[in-house]
Amino acid sequence: MHDYAALRPEEALHIREDEYERPTQDGGWGWLHLTGATVAVGNGWGDGDGTVEHRSLKHRGRNATRDVPATSALCALLDRHIKEYPSGPNGRLFVTRRGPGGYYGPTAGQPVTNNAYGTAWRKAREAALTPVQQRSLLAMRPYDLRHAAVSL
Prior knowledge:
- The chain is of the alpha+beta class and 152 residues long.
- The chain has a domain at 2-97 and 104-112.
- 34% of the residues lie in helices and 20% in strands.
- The protein is built from six helices and seven strands; from the N terminus they run H-H-E-E-E-E-E-H-E-E-H-H-H.
- It has helices at residues 2-5, 9-14, 72-84, 114-128, 131-135, 143-151; strands at residues 20-21, 30-34, 37-40, 52-55, 66-70, 95-98, 105-111.
- The strands form three sheets. A three-stranded antiparallel beta sheet has the order 1-2-5. A two-stranded antiparallel sheet has the order 3-4. Strands 6-7 form a two-stranded antiparallel sheet.
- Strand 1 and strand 2 form a beta hairpin.
- The longest helix has 15 residues, at 114-128.
- One of its GO terms (molecular function) is DNA binding.
- This is Integrase.
């Protein structure tokens, strides 16, 4: 999501299936209609009782939206993800999943945790980068992809 659309991680976690406008033709571009951000906060540090808050987009008004073009490659990834992992009960695309015996189904729609996100990112770096690159700052955090996409 980051390298195809330069989204902030909290924007990607907030996307609902109805905010994804699919391409009108095969191989075409679609749109992401961003409406907010899902932010992990520590106990006692947020406005509510939980550790997750749904907020407005950064530097925008409460009801502001942001339309982001989605490349054909990103649309293909999203379509495959939605087919394999239907959205949660709240419509969010990226929610926690668990189940015995290898069965994974949507839970109550809680967003993917920072810990799970970080673990997946570390494993991806190990699989994709050489040992020297892994020791460097190259794509150290998922947010680094946003910086790379913006600079291009």
